[in-house]
Amino acid sequence: MKVYNRLFITLLVAFIGVATVSSQSSTTQNDFFNEYGEIPSNLPTSYEMKDLTPIEFQNPRADDIYWQKVVYRVLDLRERMNYPLYYPEEPGNGRESLFSIMFKLIKDQKVPAFNFEFNQEVFSKGNKIDFEEFLKKFEIIYKTQIDPTTKQKTYQVEESDIPNREVIKYFMKEVWFFDKNSSTFNVKIISICPVIVTDRGVGIQNFPLFWIPYDALRPYFVQREVMITDKNNGARMSFDDLFMKRRFASNLYKETNLQNRMILDYNATPDEVKREQTRIKTDILNEEQDLWEY
């Protein structure tokens, strides 16, 4: 009998020990505080953000698009709602500004960038920017190095030399459309263009840099968190979430039209521009309502 009691006690102690180790290992993988009592820069999760992929956007058949309208927006990062796209000015605590992320993706040849031209966009291999010419044009200090394996030229740019502080606007191209197959009214961001705003002694000037297809950015945006509010540092959102959920402020500067004109080309005063922007927004909303009338 005593033998059985000893065996029972031994097994019980072993079970408790295994359970304790298991409990400790399961909690330390996702603890809020680390071993030094510090908190993480981002909320801890049970998964790696590098494993995240963007939600797939269903590509409708061209024949099913009953109505469409392409519009262009400008996002001014001086507006409070757009602060998450501008700050931090210097990378830190796992966070970077939108332009800093985009710049590095282009530098590392992970996403394509295409030359900017007013009133037309050409997204073709022949219209890709020459990154070294771009660096020289905007006087960005850099160093080059030849990869010994691939023999390709790579570029090194110091964090302080990336002109993210001067990029305070973005142009955005998007399309609104009605898919008769699914009976849904949708909007899709097509591309984004960072804009440097600077005063070089001749007044404030805007320098649009390049267009980047948004679909090329999504796999990287979904893996980068952005702080969207000062009130809750634990609020979790990726850059892709921010754009897909339309958590940004913007103004229209063009809609597709027969004469290929921007709003400023046929409106002389700020009041006229505002009325035209409101008209375009109203027309899009009314189009959606009218589609459900029939």
Order of helices and strands: HEHHEHEEEEEEHHEH
Number of helices: 7
Largest sheet: 7 strands, antiparallel
How many beta-strand segments? 9
- Range of strand content: 15-25%
Secondary structural class: alpha+beta
Assembly category? single chain
Gyration radius over CA: 26 Å
Distance from first to last alpha carbon: 86 Å
- Tell me, rounded to a whole number, the average pLDDT: 84
Low-confidence stretches: 18-27
Broad shape: globular
Q: Tell me the helix content.
A: 25-40%
The number of domains is 1
Describe the structure concisely for a colleague.
The protein has 7 helices and 9 strands; from the N terminus they run αβααβαββββββααβα. With 294 residues, it is α+β, with helices and mostly antiparallel strands. The strands form 2 sheets. Strands 1, 2, 5, 6, 7, 8 and 9 form a 7-stranded antiparallel beta sheet that branches.
Describe this structure in words.
There is one protein chain. Strands 1, 2, 5, 6, 7, 8 and 9 form a seven-stranded antiparallel beta sheet that branches. The chain has a two-stranded antiparallel sheet with strand order 3-4. About 3% of the residues have low confidence. Helices cover 29% and strands 22% of the residues. The protein has one domain. A hairpin with a 4-residue loop joins strand 5 and strand 6. It has 294 residues and is α+β, with helices and mostly antiparallel strands. It is globular, with a radius of gyration of 26 Å.
